[in-house]
Design brief:
Elements (H helix, E strand, L loop, with lengths): L6 H17 L7 E7 L2 E10 L2 E9 L2 H11 L5 H17 L7 H13 L7 E3 L1 H10 L14 E5 L2 H6 L8 H7 L2 E3 L10 E4 L5 E7 L6 E4 L4 E6 L2 H5 L3 E5 L5 E5 L2 H14 L5 H21 L1 H12 L3 H11 L3 H8 L2
Parallel strand pairs: 5-8, 8-10
Antiparallel strand pairs: 1-2, 2-3, 4-5, 6-7, 7-8, 9-10, 11-12
């Protein structure tokens, strides 16, 4: 059974996460405004710039969101003190063995978060997301399980990006340029979904679910193009916030762990013929998460697994093919 972090580390992580989430609702420039679109509510900070009314997206409406906004109206703690408190929590987490980021990756994540990438629907996927489940699941990960990758994958729904009527500031392309990233050539001239660092080996990729043919799509809120991929809509539905223990903390979004685990089983089979090493890594990450979730969150895991099975014969075929190579994991899922 994978090892867990201490109760102290678990509490410190959630204190850091709560503080980072609340920070995004402070210092409103105008009036909080609830907007209905497609039967769903979204909160904005509405303010005037000259004669123009501008709106800054705050988040989707929920009882928790309303309660947090009300509580923060009464909280007058100075910004500097809040930042120092978060830095103290980060130091505690690092001392407890939480994984950190190297300065280049950490500063890039902080810059993307500051521009609003994750506030506007961007969701970290891939190995960077897997590393962040140590906080959500209080899971102590080994170096072998979390071998650092230079690739950063960010996914978002095209429809959400269109609906929000807000955009990153500064633009994502400007942020990437400041970190020496340049667009990598694609099959569509003048359009790029991959950005390669000219002074290193890092790569940033933007992805979006495919509801039809795979190809490039625009993400207006992020100001970039993204590669549309099948199965991704399952992965990034209903993402959760996560805190990166870097400096005074960085707030991002990641997929729900149960969806990440099941999605990894599908992806492992899909790319087994092209990249066996990545396929094996996908299965290993899925096995770790499923072992923990079967113990701590069996209902969530069962629901995610049943959802995937109900999506058609191709989904079931890929799941069965991966699980045929993973008898222990298959037994855990069968026992749910």
């Amino acid at each position: 059974m994978p090892r867990s972090h201490s109760a102290l580390a678990h509490a410190a992580y959630h204190d850091l996460l709560r503080s980072l989430r609340d920070e995004g609702l402070r210092d409103l420039r105008g009036t909080p405004t609830r907007v209905l679109r497609g039967g769903r509510g979204y909160w904005y900070d509405s303010f005037r710039v000259g004669t123009e009314v501008r709106k800054r997206y705050l988040g989707e409406d929920s009882p928790d969101m309303a309660a947090r906004m009300e509580a923060l109206r009464q909280d007058r703690a100075p910004e500097g003190q809040r930042r120092r408190d978060r830095a103290r929590l980060v130091r505690l987490l690092r001392a407890e063995g939480f994984l950190g980021l190297d300065p280049t990756s950490g500063s890039l994540m902080a810059a993307l978060a500051g521009a609003g990438v994750f506030r506007l629907g961007g969701t970290v996927v891939g190995t960077h997301a897997f590393r962040l489940y140590e906080g959500e699941l209080s899971l102590r990960l080994s170096l072998e399980q979390t071998a650092q990758t230079d690739d950063l994958d960010i996914a978002s729904f095209e429809r959400l990006s269109l609906a929000l009527e807000d955009a990153t500031a500064p633009p994502v392309t400007q942020v990437l340029a400041e970190f020496d990233f340049a667009p990598a050539p694609s099959l569509e001239p003048g359009r790029a979904w991959r950005w390669r660092q000219t002074t290193g080996t890092a790569l940033v990729e933007f992805l979006t679910p495919a509801f039809g043919a795979e190809g490039l799509r625009d993400l207006p809120a992020l100001g970039v193009q993204a590669q549309a991929l099948r199965h991704l809509n399952y992965l990034i539905a209903d993402p959760i916030p996560a805190a990166i223990p870097y400096r005074s903390g960085v707030l991002v979004q990641i997929p729900r762990p149960e969806r990440f685990a099941i999605h990894k089983l599908i992806v492992a089979e899909r790319r087994r013929a092209q990249d066996r090493m990545k396929s094996a890594k996908d299965r290993a990450q899925a096995a770790v998460l499923i072992e923990v979730l079967a113990r701590d969150r069996p209902e969530d895991l069962a629901e995610a697994y049943e959802d995937a099975l109900d999506r058609g014969p191709r989904w079931r075929m890929r799941l069965e093919a991966s699980l045929a190579r993973m008898p222990d994991t298959a037994a855990r899922l069968a026992a749910l």
